[in-house]
């Protein structure tokens, strides 16, 4: 067994990333702009930009790119419209049930039950 493995500094690929501390990550990250101090980056919710994706994107026409962006925004607006329609229907159902409950309670109070 090597001394690096005994001391725990072995950079073996099976070692978990969270336990591996980078010596450059010891400084404060407040107001450091443009530097990559953390070895683990945050998640992006866009398509992974690899070389194959870039090559496919460059092979497209301007019309196809505009169609892609347009369809992406249409899909977002459609999802927003459907969610707002569901929320409106839920609100309407709750108000109608509250009105029915109020009428039944009022009738029971007037009948002195």
Automatic annotation (TrEMBL):
One of its GO terms (molecular function) is chloride transmembrane transporter activity. InterPro entries: Cl-channel/antiporter, Cl-channel_core. This is Chloride channel-like protein CLC-g. Signal peptide: none annotated. It comes from the Eukaryota. The lineage of its organism: Eukaryota, Viridiplantae, Streptophyta, Embryophyta, Tracheophyta. It comes from Heracleum sosnowskyi. One of its GO terms (cellular component) is plant-type vacuole membrane. Keywords: CBS domain, Membrane, Repeat, Transmembrane, Transmembrane helix. The chain crosses the membrane at residues 68-88.
